[in-house]
Amino acid sequence: QVQLVESGGGLVQAGGSLRLSCAASGRPLSMLHMNWFRQAPGQERELLAAISSSLNTYYRDSVKGRFTISRDNAKNTVYLQMNSLKPEDTAVYYCAAGVGPNVYKYWGQGTQVTVSS
Question: What is the pLDDT of the chain when averaged over all its residues?
Answer without folding.
Answer: 96
